[in-house]
Amino acid sequence: MKVLITGGAGYIGSTICWALKDHGHTPIILDSLVTGREEFARDHIFYQGDIGDPEIVSKVFEDHPDIFATIHCAALIVVPESVEKPYEYYRENVVKSMHFFYQLAQLGYPRLVFSSSAAIYDVVPGFMVTEESPLKPTSPYSRTKYMMEMVLEDFTQAYPLQGIALRYFNPIGADPQLRSGMHIETPSHILGKLVEVAQGVAPVFNITGTDWPTRDGTGIRDYIHVWDLASAHIKAVEKFDQVIAEDGNTARQYAVINLGTGQGVTVRELVDAFERVIGHPIEKQEKSPRPGDVAGAYANANKALALLGWKAEKSIDEGIRDALRWGEIRDQVLDYN
Length: 337
Ligand SMILES: NC(=O)c1ccc[n+]([C@@H]2O[C@H](COP(=O)([O-])OP(=O)(O)OC[C@H]3O[C@@H](n4cnc5c(N)ncnc54)[C@H](O)[C@@H]3O)[C@@H](O)[C@H]2O)c1
Description:
337 residues; two-stranded parallel ribbon
């Protein structure tokens, strides 16, 4: 089946495109390349354009009237940047997404899978969150995700639209065949920083926060291999109508599903796994938490298993290994000049 992927030239969207292709489906990318990479789009049907441009959106559906579902990954995603530029984040992630959702309903393409985030959860005792756990987004970025969940739920009540919001935990790794991976040149995420220390680019890895009420005092997250994440989207699309029909309250046309491994991993445990994979220890030091840091969360992944028949299969070591393998060839795949 044909599936429209907005943001398909980004890290997660491009991985979903390859997973779709490997399952015999046809991805169609709509991406403005504001942050994404043309190299990730060139092997697929690709429209370079903005989700906020109704003409290009209409053209995509005119050219491909048989699109079965839309996966909406397009967004700006950098938390500190969202604090500095909230107008841009609300404009891109909320205003444009809202018009785009409405246009999908008007054009008669009701099936919509939305890239949401576990960053919208509040911290709960024990750190494991279900889809019913309290929400408390703490940055403009995470508030855009929270708002779009609410918009989507309201739209599905009022318009011919059906939505599945997938709350991603912490994606790591790359396409195991190395056709795509993380593309940001200087990564700000934890695995990127570990790699920089291992490569000698940075002198020491800072463990920021060692007094959280976790088993070893460091922050806890749920690191999910991006290929597992992509595979969940295949299930969400293939089982879309079933998921909407089965998710509890039958009046609703909207479902929320956590996409995580169900395993909490602390920063120290991630560092241990990293050292295990590279085969030697790295320089590290303990520091105070950074402003805005939280103890963290990991997924209760039962609903994904029940509704999608999906669970994460790849280990944290595989995620680290694939990230390192991708890092070795990335500059041959992507042209940064
Ligand atoms: N990476 C993570 O850790 C993470 C975690 C949770 C949720 N998510 C969500 O997953 C989605 C994909 O994230 P990613 O890591 O692949 O980010 P990314 O920056 O690699 O990809 C985003 C893509 O969207 C495109 N885009 C942005 N605004 C657009 C617009 N107005 N019109 C058309 N294209 C536009 C960009 O060019 C880029 O290719 C996002 O919605 C993000 O919020 C990501």
